[in-house]
Design goal:
single chain; alpha+beta; 3-stranded antiparallel beta sheet; 2 helices; extended
Length: 94
């Protein structure tokens, strides 16, 4: 875990840190090297098997599921749902 945290902290200094492209790149990362300690994990007995991302933008929620290793992820399966906003007004006593 310490190594993965160091990779994420180092990546947080990149100019596009926090963007969707940056998060995808981070989860596909093999830093410091491909193996059991990279975020996209590869071991003889186990590996990362998928990546799921959820984005909330304006009045829409999107879920994208990428099957397989994140470093080999395809476009993924997308689900989009509208978000209804409710405005609650608090009555003030006169």
């Amino acid at each position: 875990m310490r190594i993965r945290r160091e990779v994420a902290v180092n990546a947080s200094g990149e100019s596009d840190a926090g963007t969707l492209a940056w998060l995808r790149r981070l989860h596909r990362s093999h830093d410091p090297e491909e193996g059991p300690f990279s975020i996209c994990m590869h071991r003889e007995d186990a590996c990362s098997v998928s990546m799921t991302e959820v984005t909330l933008v304006n009045e829409k929620a999107e879920l994208t599921y990428h099957a397989g290793l994140p470093c080999q992820a395809s476009d993924g399966l997308n689900l989009s749902l509208p978000i209804k906003r409710k405005t609650y007004l608090r009555r003030l006593a006169p």
